[in-house]
Write a structure and sequence with these properties.
Length: 854
């Protein structure tokens, strides 16, 4: 049996080359993504960074800790409390202490003459990105704490007077030099700093070090305390002072670093991206290989009929088909093993270059992904051929006598049943989600995986759908002068299996492209619509850099502008304990209740925004408790536990409708946005000019935007990880589609050389025959594109329905350009793959071709 299979593969290599390439590529992608996925399971052990040279660090606990019936639950706090002054004094009695203060510092770029460049002009001239405005966001610290890292001067000296600074330089740390003068903005206001020294950037922050006294003036609170004393004695003092403080030693000091979990969080995103890509790769590979083997079996009906006539049993035929698949599967999987091992480091480097993975991310020494990919390829090839082998085993001996190329029976009952089950499952899951939880339809995992069931179900029905669609799409061309349209229509209709085999990969690719990109674009448009609808302010004032706050003096100046109704708000968070077991944190805005309705219009479904006060909260429908008037226990951004009454409930929307509290419950957050409505009797131009004058006077890059400009800037777009993941998936699908198209059409055209010869003998010229072959190939690709577009339409209709049920009125965004490019690429590949073998075959005399036998 093995020798027979090897002989079959060798003599019909054209039939199997497409399956080999598609499977090798699929195994290679699975192996590469698997190796990269394995590298995300654990981050390398990293020691402390900012306080690597500090013996003991005391800081406030940055975790909210709540005891529940199922144990202790924790969530990160939005704002960490400072070290109490009394505790600082007590710890100073144990030994030398160094007070660390952390505060934002925004540096303005200098001109070529070394003088500070005005930030107002930079802000107007260059976009909204702080770095393109000439603003460089940095973190400020007192110079004495630099030794805890340790930082070492690479040039100059330490700061000795107010207005002097030491800055980090090098990769990620800017390019300032000793002697430069820069305009700096701190929480205490704007000032001019002279760079008197530089230290090498250590990769975890871009820092500015000021003199200890100046740092204490800017930020009086002590954020962390370095203690040069015995750790046990420090713990005793902290314990006597009460809870809420951490004593960090050894590796525990890394918890005082900026973003101590940033690498682990980045790996979670990479893990999700690669896991999805591997799953889609497996799906497309199985679909393409199964379709290829099914078509190969259909093309060999007369061969199998001859074997049956010679005495072969149905079991022997089936074993021959499966054995051929195993041979191809082993060889292709071995090639895929090599491709995956070679490509994995390139994939890891691409993820790092795109900023999706940490700089240290690299492929480890794990080999199990290679073994998994290899055996997955063998199983996929065997499974893809197994279903086709049953059809081959049922081939009757009389098949050898048939000369007609018309497919009389396009689908067995088993395929009908399987298609119906898959379609009903996919449709049932979509309808159930729309009825029970519309928000589930909008989740990333849902909109990536749920369409696959519908795609598989429709792809299984391709042989049934192809015939009517071919006749419908070629109705007009068949009525044009000439025989090309008629012949293309009849050939595609007669060879339904061939048409379905060509259309299936196009269906998968077009449906995936339109569904995934369309869903992401539709959700982005829906979120933008929510932002535009909820913001009624004429002007919006925001800091020059993300994460910064607006100076109190500036806020008061804005409030004093004549004709401006200013609604000052702060970004914060609230946490609630759901069902007594899970801590759930929601983004929140602390607003001025008296001005809220004047500058915004959140989608209220119950209660009144005007009832919001210091003793209440506005929640959305995602919360478990949504009855107006009931009280809920929440933890604020600084960890304080309070009981608040529900004043109003907002629609869930796309999930961006957050929570509203008052400034008293902001958890210590500073103002980071001012929504301004122009009073009826006021001059809008005068109000805008006054606000811009006040902003420029601060010299901090504060931006004054119109409501429309702010909504456009604030609307969430597609993240880099999502974009990279989608293009990784779609590129892989397009590659597999191209391979499947090329293989199927080369094989089909090679088997049709006698038909082409007959056309030549009836008087058709070579260009006419080639034109017919190309038109037929493009027509079949169009059929696949139409079917795929239909599947995508159902998926996008489900997304639109979910948005409507969630109260978001937004249209569906269809990526016509990308879909057109995918279809055009498939059409070109199909036309070339059909025309080239036909042109080669037609070089032989038609009489000789007409006399050929299989």
């Amino acid at each position: 049996m093995l020798m027979l299979a090897l002989h079959g593969v060798r003599t019909r290599w054209v039939t199997f080359v497409g399956s080999f390439v598609a499977l090798a590529l699929g195994v290679g992608l699975i192996a590469a993504t698997g190796l990269a996925l394995a590298a995300t399971f654990s981050a390398p052990d990293k020691g402390p960074e900012r306080f690597a040279a500090a013996p003991v660090v005391v800081r406030a606990d940055d975790q909210l800790r709540v005891r529940t019936a199922n144990g202790l639950r924790t969530r990160p706090l939005a704002r960490t409390a400072p070290v109490p002054p009394a505790l600082v004094t007590e710890l100073a009695a144990l030994g030398r202490t160094v007070e660390d203060r952390t505060f934002p510092v925004d540096l303005a770029a200098t001109g070529r003459d070394g003088e500070p460049r005005t930030q107002g002009s930079a802000s107007r001239a260059q976009g909204s990105d702080p770095r393109t405005q000439g603003i460089e966001p940095r973190t400020g610290h007192p110079w004495s704490v630099a030794a805890a890292a340790p930082y070492r001067l690479t040039s100059g000296r330490s700061p000795a007077a107010p207005g002097e600074a030491v800055v980090t330089t090098g990769p990620g740390g800017g390019h300032l030099r000793t002697g430069d003068r820069v305009r700096a903005t701190t929480p205490a206001g704007a000032t001019t700093l002279t760079v008197v020294g530089t230290v090498a950037d250590r990769g975890f922050e871009s820092a500015v070090f000021l003199g200890d006294e100046e740092a204490a003036r800017i930020s009086p609170a002590v954020d962390a305390l370095v203690v040069h004393a015995d750790a046990t004695a420090v713990r005793d003092v902290v314990a006597r002072a009460g809870g809420g403080m951490d004593v960090l030693t050894g590796d525990g000091r890394r918890h005082a670093d900026p973003g101590p979990d940033r690498d682990a969080e980045a790996l979670v995103s990479v893990n999700a991206l690669l896991g999805t890509a591997a799953g889609i790769t497996l799906f497309v590979s199985v679909s393409v290989v199964a379709s290829t083997f099914a078509f190969a079996v259909a093309q060999r009906r007369r061969e199998f009929g001859l074997l049956r006539t010679a005495g072969a049993t149905p079991g022997q035929i089936r074993r021959t088909v499966v054995a051929e698949a195993v041979v191809v599967g082993v060889l292709a999987s071995a090639a895929g093993w090599w491709l995956g091992a070679t490509g994995a480091p390139l994939l890891a480097a691409r993820l790092v270059d795109a900023g999706l993975a940490p700089a240290w991310f690299a492929i480890g020494e794990q080999t199990w992904p290679l073994h998994t990919a290899f055996w997955t390829g063998v199983v996929v090839a065997t499974a893809g051929a197994l279903a086709a082998s049953f059809r081959a085993g049922r081939t009757a001996p009389t098949e050898v006598l048939r000369e007609a190329a018309v497919d009389s029976r396009t689908m067995p009952a088993s395929r009908w049943i399987l298609a119906a089950l898959v379609l009903l499952t996919g449709a049932g899951l979509l309808v159930t989600a729309l009825v029970l939880d519309p928000g589930d339809v909008l989740g990333r995992k849902a909109y990536i995986t749920r369409p696959l069931l519908l795609i598989v179900g429709v792809a299984l029905l391709a042989p049934v759908l192809a015939g009517p669609l071919v006749r419908a799409l070629t109705w007009l061309p068949a009525r044009l002068p000439g025989a090309t349209g008629v012949l293309a229509r009849e050939n595609a209709s007669a060879g339904v299996r061939r048409t379905a085999a060509v259309a299936a990969p196009v269906v998968i690719t077009v449906a995936l492209t339109a569904s995934l990109l369309g869903t992401v674009a539709t959700l982005a448009e829906a979120k933008a619509t929510e932002v535009r609808t909820a913001t009624t302010a004429d002007l919006v004032v925001v800091p020059g850099a993300a994460g910064r706050t607006l100076p109190p003096s500036f806020v008061e100046r804005v409030r004093a502008v004549e004709g401006a109704v200013a609604g000052v708000s702060r970004s914060t968070a609230v946490t609630v304990l759901e069902e007594g077991t899970a801590l759930v944190t929601s983004e929140a805005r602390a607003v001025d209740p008296a001005r809220l309705t004047a500058v915004s219009a959140p989608p209220v479904v119950a209660g009144r925004l005007a009832d919001l006060d210091d003793d209440s909260i506005v929640v959305n429908e995602e919360w478990l408790t949504t009855t107006v008037g009931e009280r809920v226990t929440v933890w604020l951004g600084d960890g304080r536990e309070v009981s608040l009454r529900i004043a109003a409930v907002l629609a869930t929307g796309t999930g961006s409708n957050g929570v509203y509290v008052t400034a008293r419950n902001a958890g210590g957050a500073g103002p980071d946005r001012i929504d301004v409505a122009v009073a009826e009797a006021a001059d809008p131009g005068a109000v805008a000019a006054a606000l811009r004058t006040a902003a420029e006077a601060q010299g901090t890059g504060i931006r004054v935007l119109t409501g429309a400009e702010w909504a456009a800037a604030a609307a969430p777009g597609m993240s880099d990880s999502t974009r990279t993941g989608l293009w990784l998936i779609l590129s892989m699908a397009l590659l597999c589609t191209g391979i499947a198209l090329a293989n199927t059409l080369v094989t089909a055209t090679t088997d049709r050389v006698r038909d082409l010869a007959v056309l030549r003998l009836t008087g058709a010229s070579v260009p006419q025959v080639l034109r017919l072959v190309a038109v037929e190939a493009v027509a079949v690709v169009t059929v696949g594109a139409v079917i795929g577009a239909g599947v995508a339409a159902v998926n996008l209709a489900g997304v639109w329905g979910a948005l409507a049920l969630l109260g978001v009125r937004s249209g569906v965004v269809v990526p016509w350009g990308t879909i057109g490019a995918v279809v055009a690429a498939a059409a070109v590949v199909a036309a070339v793959s059909a025309v080239v073998p036909a042109a080669v075959a037609l070089r032989t005399r038609p009489v000789e071709l007409a006399g050929m036998r299989e």
